[in-house]
Amino acid sequence: MLNRFARALFTRIFTPVARLLLSWGVSPDVVTLVGTFGVCAGSLILFPIGQLFWGVMAVTAFVFSDLLDGTMARLSGRSSVWGAYLDSTLDRLGDGAVFGGLVLYYAGGGDDDVMTALALTCLVLGYLVSYSRARAEGLGMQANVGIAERSERLVATLIATGFVGIGAPDAVLGVVLALLAVASVITVMQRILMVRKQALALIAADRAAAVATGDV
Known about the structure:
Layout: H1 2-23, H2 28-46, H3 52-63, H4 65-76, H5 81-107, H6 113-138, H7 150-165, H8 170-213
Protein backbone atom coordinates (compact mmCIF):
# COMPACT_ATOMS: atom_id res chain seq x y z
CA MET A 1 0.00 0.00 0.00
CA LEU A 2 2.80 2.38 0.90
CA ASN A 3 4.51 1.60 -2.40
CA ARG A 4 1.39 2.36 -4.42
CA PHE A 5 0.36 5.62 -2.78
CA ALA A 6 3.62 7.13 -1.56
CA ARG A 7 6.10 6.18 -4.26
CA ALA A 8 4.41 8.27 -6.98
CA LEU A 9 4.25 11.30 -4.68
CA PHE A 10 7.89 11.14 -3.62
CA THR A 11 9.00 10.44 -7.17
CA ARG A 12 7.45 13.75 -8.25
CA ILE A 13 9.10 15.52 -5.32
CA PHE A 14 12.56 14.12 -6.08
CA THR A 15 12.44 14.50 -9.86
CA PRO A 16 13.95 18.05 -9.80
CA VAL A 17 16.73 16.80 -7.49
CA ALA A 18 17.35 13.85 -9.80
CA ARG A 19 17.64 16.17 -12.81
CA LEU A 20 20.08 18.40 -10.92
CA LEU A 21 22.33 15.51 -9.89
CA LEU A 22 22.34 14.15 -13.43
CA SER A 23 23.32 17.58 -14.74
CA TRP A 24 26.31 17.44 -12.36
CA GLY A 25 27.34 14.09 -13.79
CA VAL A 26 26.34 12.02 -10.74
CA SER A 27 25.33 8.47 -11.65
CA PRO A 28 22.42 6.56 -10.09
CA ASP A 29 24.85 3.91 -8.78
CA VAL A 30 26.73 6.56 -6.79
CA VAL A 31 23.48 7.70 -5.17
CA THR A 32 22.66 4.08 -4.31
CA LEU A 33 26.05 3.57 -2.67
CA VAL A 34 25.99 6.87 -0.75
CA GLY A 35 22.45 6.24 0.45
CA THR A 36 23.31 2.77 1.70
CA PHE A 37 26.42 4.05 3.46
CA GLY A 38 24.37 6.75 5.19
CA VAL A 39 21.69 4.31 6.34
CA CYS A 40 24.31 1.91 7.68
CA ALA A 41 26.28 4.65 9.40
CA GLY A 42 23.20 6.17 11.04
CA SER A 43 22.00 2.77 12.24
CA LEU A 44 25.26 1.21 13.36
CA ILE A 45 26.83 4.31 14.91
CA LEU A 46 23.92 6.18 16.48
CA PHE A 47 21.55 3.37 17.51
CA PRO A 48 24.11 1.40 19.58
CA ILE A 49 25.01 4.47 21.66
CA GLY A 50 21.36 5.18 22.45
CA GLN A 51 20.84 8.08 20.02
CA LEU A 52 17.68 6.50 18.62
CA PHE A 53 15.95 9.69 17.52
CA TRP A 54 18.96 11.13 15.72
CA GLY A 55 19.69 7.72 14.27
CA VAL A 56 16.21 7.67 12.76
CA MET A 57 16.72 11.18 11.40
CA ALA A 58 19.99 10.14 9.77
CA VAL A 59 18.50 6.97 8.30
CA THR A 60 15.45 8.86 7.01
CA ALA A 61 17.66 11.44 5.31
CA PHE A 62 19.41 8.73 3.31
CA VAL A 63 16.67 6.15 2.85
CA PHE A 64 15.01 8.25 0.14
CA SER A 65 18.00 7.52 -2.09
CA ASP A 66 16.09 4.35 -2.96
CA LEU A 67 13.60 6.52 -4.84
CA LEU A 68 16.11 9.07 -6.05
CA ASP A 69 18.42 6.61 -7.79
CA GLY A 70 15.49 4.94 -9.55
CA THR A 71 14.20 8.29 -10.75
CA MET A 72 17.68 9.22 -12.00
CA ALA A 73 17.98 5.92 -13.87
CA ARG A 74 14.67 6.44 -15.64
CA LEU A 75 15.38 10.05 -16.54
CA SER A 76 18.83 9.22 -17.93
CA GLY A 77 17.74 6.03 -19.67
CA ARG A 78 20.22 4.04 -17.59
CA SER A 79 17.75 1.57 -16.12
CA SER A 80 19.42 -1.82 -16.29
CA VAL A 81 19.54 -5.27 -14.78
CA TRP A 82 22.78 -4.30 -13.04
CA GLY A 83 21.22 -1.22 -11.43
CA ALA A 84 18.21 -3.21 -10.24
CA TYR A 85 20.50 -5.90 -8.81
CA LEU A 86 22.74 -3.40 -7.02
CA ASP A 87 19.78 -1.49 -5.61
CA SER A 88 18.03 -4.62 -4.35
CA THR A 89 21.18 -6.06 -2.81
CA LEU A 90 22.12 -2.86 -1.00
CA ASP A 91 18.53 -2.44 0.22
CA ARG A 92 18.99 -5.71 2.12
CA LEU A 93 22.22 -4.36 3.61
CA GLY A 94 20.52 -1.18 4.78
CA ASP A 95 17.59 -3.08 6.30
CA GLY A 96 19.98 -5.37 8.13
CA ALA A 97 21.86 -2.38 9.51
CA VAL A 98 18.68 -0.84 10.94
CA PHE A 99 17.66 -3.97 12.83
CA GLY A 100 21.28 -4.80 13.62
CA GLY A 101 21.72 -1.37 15.22
CA LEU A 102 18.70 -2.01 17.42
CA VAL A 103 20.09 -5.42 18.40
CA LEU A 104 23.39 -3.81 19.41
CA TYR A 105 21.61 -1.14 21.45
CA TYR A 106 19.34 -3.46 23.40
CA ALA A 107 22.08 -6.03 23.88
CA GLY A 108 24.32 -3.27 25.25
CA GLY A 109 23.27 0.02 26.82
CA GLY A 110 19.57 -0.66 26.37
CA ASP A 111 19.99 -3.84 28.44
CA ASP A 112 16.75 -5.55 27.41
CA ASP A 113 16.89 -9.21 26.42
CA VAL A 114 13.30 -9.28 25.14
CA MET A 115 13.85 -6.30 22.85
CA THR A 116 17.14 -7.79 21.69
CA ALA A 117 15.38 -11.01 20.78
CA LEU A 118 12.56 -9.18 18.97
CA ALA A 119 14.96 -7.03 16.93
CA LEU A 120 17.07 -10.07 16.06
CA THR A 121 13.95 -12.01 15.05
CA CYS A 122 12.86 -9.20 12.73
CA LEU A 123 16.37 -9.05 11.27
CA VAL A 124 16.36 -12.76 10.41
CA LEU A 125 12.76 -12.87 9.21
CA GLY A 126 13.28 -9.79 7.05
CA TYR A 127 15.96 -11.62 5.11
CA LEU A 128 13.80 -14.73 4.91
CA VAL A 129 10.91 -12.71 3.44
CA SER A 130 13.20 -11.34 0.74
CA TYR A 131 14.85 -14.70 0.07
CA SER A 132 11.54 -16.54 -0.27
CA ARG A 133 10.61 -14.26 -3.16
CA ALA A 134 14.05 -14.12 -4.77
CA ARG A 135 14.42 -17.90 -4.70
CA ALA A 136 10.98 -18.41 -6.22
CA GLU A 137 11.77 -15.99 -9.04
CA GLY A 138 15.09 -17.75 -9.58
CA LEU A 139 13.12 -20.95 -10.17
CA GLY A 140 10.86 -19.21 -12.67
CA MET A 141 7.89 -18.82 -10.32
CA GLN A 142 6.17 -15.90 -8.60
CA ALA A 143 5.98 -15.16 -4.88
CA ASN A 144 4.85 -11.53 -4.87
CA VAL A 145 2.28 -11.90 -2.11
CA GLY A 146 2.42 -11.01 1.57
CA ILE A 147 1.36 -8.54 4.21
CA ALA A 148 4.85 -7.51 5.32
CA GLU A 149 6.50 -5.70 2.43
CA ARG A 150 9.90 -4.09 2.91
CA SER A 151 8.67 -0.49 2.91
CA GLU A 152 6.01 -1.10 5.55
CA ARG A 153 8.45 -2.95 7.81
CA LEU A 154 11.07 -0.24 7.56
CA VAL A 155 8.71 2.72 8.02
CA ALA A 156 6.93 1.15 11.01
CA THR A 157 10.25 0.35 12.69
CA LEU A 158 11.71 3.81 12.13
CA ILE A 159 8.59 5.61 13.39
CA ALA A 160 8.43 3.50 16.54
CA THR A 161 12.17 3.85 17.13
CA GLY A 162 11.93 7.61 16.74
CA PHE A 163 9.17 7.82 19.35
CA VAL A 164 11.24 5.75 21.78
CA GLY A 165 14.13 8.10 21.10
CA ILE A 166 12.08 11.07 22.34
CA GLY A 167 10.84 9.38 25.48
CA ALA A 168 8.18 6.83 24.60
CA PRO A 169 8.51 3.51 26.45
CA ASP A 170 10.43 0.70 24.81
CA ALA A 171 7.17 -1.27 24.78
CA VAL A 172 6.00 0.88 21.84
CA LEU A 173 8.82 -0.42 19.69
CA GLY A 174 8.45 -3.87 21.20
CA VAL A 175 4.84 -4.13 20.08
CA VAL A 176 5.75 -2.97 16.57
CA LEU A 177 8.60 -5.47 16.32
CA ALA A 178 6.39 -8.30 17.58
CA LEU A 179 3.70 -7.46 15.03
CA LEU A 180 6.28 -7.25 12.26
CA ALA A 181 7.67 -10.65 13.26
CA VAL A 182 4.20 -12.20 13.07
CA ALA A 183 3.47 -10.46 9.76
CA SER A 184 6.81 -11.67 8.36
CA VAL A 185 6.06 -15.28 9.31
CA ILE A 186 2.64 -15.00 7.64
CA THR A 187 4.24 -13.50 4.53
CA VAL A 188 6.77 -16.33 4.28
CA MET A 189 3.99 -18.90 4.64
CA GLN A 190 1.91 -17.14 1.98
CA ARG A 191 4.86 -17.25 -0.41
CA ILE A 192 5.63 -20.89 0.36
CA LEU A 193 2.03 -21.86 -0.35
CA MET A 194 1.98 -19.81 -3.55
CA VAL A 195 5.16 -21.48 -4.82
CA ARG A 196 3.86 -24.92 -3.80
CA LYS A 197 0.69 -24.34 -5.81
CA GLN A 198 2.72 -23.39 -8.87
CA ALA A 199 5.09 -26.32 -8.42
CA LEU A 200 2.21 -28.80 -8.17
CA ALA A 201 0.64 -27.29 -11.29
CA LEU A 202 3.91 -27.81 -13.18
CA ILE A 203 4.09 -31.42 -12.02
CA ALA A 204 0.52 -32.01 -13.14
CA ALA A 205 1.23 -30.41 -16.52
CA ASP A 206 4.32 -32.58 -17.01
CA ARG A 207 2.34 -35.71 -16.18
CA ALA A 208 -0.43 -34.72 -18.57
CA ALA A 209 2.12 -34.10 -21.30
CA ALA A 210 3.73 -37.46 -20.64
CA VAL A 211 0.37 -39.23 -20.88
CA ALA A 212 -0.46 -37.43 -24.10
CA THR A 213 2.82 -38.48 -25.71
CA GLY A 214 2.69 -42.02 -24.36
CA ASP A 215 5.85 -41.62 -22.27
CA VAL A 216 4.31 -43.21 -19.17
